[in-house]
Design brief:
- By secondary structure, the protein is α/β, with parallel strands linked by helices.
- The chain is built from 8 helices and 8 strands; from the N terminus they run ααααβββαβαββαββα.
- It has an 8-stranded mixed beta sheet with strand order 1-2-4-3-5-8-6-7, sandwiched between helices.
- Helix 7 (about 180-195) links the parallel strand 6 (about 175-180) and strand 7.
Length: about 240
């Protein structure tokens, strides 16, 4: 009930606010990415292993201004985590956005979203945590997330959702797949596409809930990025993150 109420409050309070409405913010996001050079997607494929982690860390700590950055390591798995505090300092809830380290375009997408948040000065109520995780050697391909799940349990953080972006999966284009409870997913499916319409025809569909193949024990919103329209896709993921957060 609290999470359903959260979405309603975000939409209603923002719409009532005379300063910045959701429509205005999404127009700003569209303008930010219109004609913008995809710098990160051009650079990231050049780096591998430790050099990739070094590059990501430098960008997160410097240009993007993450407040906290840390790594999780175990049995050859490594996860790079960066956190950006929300405007409500007493709020212990957090939102996450994640990508696999073996998918450079997906990692670049996370950097694009975080840069847009900084350049447009988008405020977010909840802390926003970016996750760059090692791919696994088993069939699930995401064992690095088990370290994230363990870290969350030990810290007692309350994760509302994780937006997982990828370019190497088989999900449909321009579609956010919601591994979320049907009741809450329906709320998002009914509300979010209308706000995103200025950016294109983006759909939200019900996925698997609970998704037992995913190591993170929280709602997962999966999105397949089309690299041929990278900046348009970055605008869509940024807008989706904004509307949820």
């Amino acid at each position: 009930m609290k999470r359903i109420l959260l979405v309603a409050l975000v939409v209603l309070s923002a719409a009532a606010c005379k300063k910045i409405t959701p429509e205005t913010r999404i127009a700003q996001i569209d303008q930010h990415f219109n004609g913008k050079e995809a710098v990160y997607s051009a650079k990231l494929p050049q780096y591998t292993d430790e050099k990739l982690l070094d590059y990501l860390t430098l960008q997160l700590a410097g240009e993007l201004g993450a407040k906290d950055i840390w790594t999780l390591e175990e049995d050859g798995q490594v996860v790079l985590v960066a956190e950006f505090p929300g405007k409500d300092k007493k709020n212990t809830q957090l939102s996450m956005i994640s990508a696999s380290l073996d998918d450079p375009n997906a990692c670049a997408m996370l950097l694009e979203v975080l840069e847009a948040y900084k350049k447009i000065k988008i405020q977010h109520k909840n802390a926003l945590r970016a996750i760059f995780y090692s791919p696994a050697s088993d069939s699930t391909g995401r064992n690095g997330l088990t370290l994230v799940n363990q870290d969350i349990r030990e810290s007692g953080d309350m994760v509302l959702f994780d937006i997982e972006v990828a370019t190497r999966d088989d999900q449909p284009l321009h579609t956010f797949v919601l591994d979320e409870s049907p009741t809450f997913a329906k709320t998002l499916i009914d509300v979010v596409p209308g706000y995103m319409a200025p950016l294109g025809n983006y759909q939200l569909v019900q996925g698997t809930f609970p998704n037992l193949d995913w190591q993170l024990r929280c709602p997962i919103y999966r999105y397949h990025v089309d690299p041929s329209a990278f900046q348009q896709e970055a605008a869509a993921v940024t807008a989706f993150t904004f509307l949820l957060n």
